[in-house]
């Protein structure tokens, strides 16, 4: 359209739908100015995958530590909304340069006798990018 509209908002998912260029200012300093696609690319500091197995979560985490390209593994607990119960979850971060295909990870666990109950990749959206940028995680 060739038009510029200045919008200030904290509702970042709406901004991502409306805008193709954003500027992020913190404490009067411009931290980023450019296309939404560029800030999303910069915010991807590695692929984060959330995994839950039916049992033996610590063993599954040890198995995943041996996978090439695994940068970090964090064990945590999460609530299951439907049942109100809690379960252990593995947050696995693959190095941004990793050559491991994420589709191999479930096969590795299944071949070791683990039953997957959750496997999903963390989405990088404008809110994630903003949080990483303002915490100094994005260069």
What is the secondary structure topology, with strand pairs?
Elements: H1 12-18, E1 21-26, E2 29-35, H2 36-43, E3 47-53, H3 57-65, E4 70-80, E5 85-94, H4 104-111, E6 116-121, H5 126-134
Antiparallel strand pairs: 1-2, 3-5, 3-6, 4-5
Helix pairs in contact: 2-5
Descriptive report:
- It contains five helices and six strands, in the order H-E-E-H-E-H-E-E-H-E-H.
- The strands form two sheets. Strands 4-5-3-6 form a four-stranded antiparallel β-sheet, with helices on one face. Strands 1-2 form a two-stranded antiparallel sheet.
- The chain is elongated and about 55 Å long.
- The two termini are 31 Å apart.
- Strand 4 and strand 5 form a beta hairpin.
- The longest helix has 9 residues, at 57-65.
- The chain has two domains: 1-44 and 124-139, no CATH class; 47-121, Alpha-Beta Plaits, CATH 3.30.70.1340.
- The chain is 29% helix and 34% strand.
- With 139 residues, the chain is of the alpha+beta class.
């Amino acid at each position: 359209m060739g038009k510029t509209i200045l919008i200030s908002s904290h509702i970042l998912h709406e901004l991502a739908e409306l805008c193709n260029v954003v500027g992020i200012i913190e404490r009067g300093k411009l931290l980023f100015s450019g296309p939404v696609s560029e800030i999303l690319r910069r915010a991807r500091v590695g692929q984060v995958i959330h995994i839950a197995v039916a049992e033996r979560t610590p063993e599954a985490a040890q198995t995943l530590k041996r996978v090439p390209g695994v940068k970090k593994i964090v064990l945590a607990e999460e609530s299951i909304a439907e049942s109100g119960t809690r379960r252990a979850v593995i947050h696995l971060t693959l190095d941004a340069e990793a050559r491991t295909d994420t589709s191999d990870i479930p096969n590795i666990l299944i071949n070791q006798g683990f039953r997957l109950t959750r496997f999903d990749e963390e989405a990088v959206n404008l809110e994630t990018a903003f949080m990483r940028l303002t915490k100094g995680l994005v260069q």
